[in-house]
Design goal:
Elements: H1 2-9, H2 13-16, H3 21-31, E1 36-40, E2 53-57, H4 61-65, E3 74-75, E4 91-95, H5 104-114, E5 117-121, H6 125-130, H7 132-137, H8 139-146, H9 151-158, E6 162-166, E7 195-197, E8 215-220, E9 224-228, E10 231-235
Parallel strand pairs: 1-2, 1-4, 2-3, 4-5, 5-9
Antiparallel strand pairs: 6-7, 6-8, 8-9, 9-10
Amino acid sequence: MEGALYDEIGVGYALGRRTDQRWLTPVLAALGGARTVLDVGAGTGSYEPADRAVYAVEPSSEMIRQRPGGAAPVVRAVAEALPVRDSAVEAVLAVLTVHHWADWRRGLAELRRVAPLRVVLAYDTRRHAEFWLVREYVPEIARLELSRPSAEQIAEEFGAQVVLSLPVPWDFADGSFRRTGGVRPPTSTSGSVVRARRLPRPRPPRSSGECGACARIWPVDGGSVSMRSCSVSRNGTPGFG
């Protein structure tokens, strides 16, 4: 399903979606010392690390076509049935993709199967559904968002212990739809990152430089990290705060 969707809407994707260092830095930190990484739902590879061995899985032929020269080798497959053996890599990465999976719990189970460390960047679907632009002008998207897994659900599925919120500032370089929430502050303002240990998790900061749906990261016992857009999650070895 995800592959067919992006074969249609993914044309020109690479023109608007670019790596923003403010998200790449925490993603790399979450991956820690992992030397081999499987990027699931890889798209054009915007947040794939350049300093270690990376292998990509992507269901859309259109997205694969837009991967730049020199990008990690890619296999066309879905998250729910990864074509790799158990514990094949040291870490698995999934950036802004879980909400598209037909069976997101099965997909997360696959992440657990293939790597001891899992890093997932997701966004807060509930908060995004409440965002004024979505709520007032595209209520169809709001209804769709409410049918998707929230960042909290992903973190709970992984058993995450730490949550970090990543800001989506007004000058965010990655042209994700969530960027529409970015507000230019009247003065120079840096978005804060929330760090919490154990539940309950704090609400993301609402500074003038952030949108209503932020990104987060969760390190978890057992080997996984989970993030969200406005969120990142790491399930597994604690050590990414």
